[in-house]
Request: fold
Amino acid sequence: MNNIEETKCPIPNNNSKTCLIYESSFKFCRAVYAVLVLISFILKNEWILLITIILMLLRLFSIKLDIPYQFHALFLRKLLKDESEPIVKEKSELNFVFGMMAILLLIGYLFIHFNKFVSWAWIFVLIVDFLMFLAVFVGFCLATLMYIFLKKIFNKNKK
Reply:
């Protein structure tokens, strides 16, 4: 656990493979993205979907750029008097999860934008949104499960 930063700051150390994040802020940010995707589906608005995808892709560069997470971690936690301790997460896991969600949504967006299989694309976006809500409310994240599975496969090959 030498790689874990010692401070309880919600912003990770760039040199570390792990970071401390607030689980409530993480769930909030996932919920915000899921609600934005749901709104884009209900309104059939591809631009709200694109904005959501861009916000999720920004998250891949740094957690500092994850606007919903930072909003909750730095402001809402204080207002709600959330005293929970941060948890340790691997940066690569978080990046894989957000990258996977963003890429799947981007695939749906591209089909919608280029008017190819538009009805199918919106259904695909709704399925991805369902998986996002599943991760928020039930705690089961298919992308995290895939990450763990792929990590075990690649670690076996290294040995």
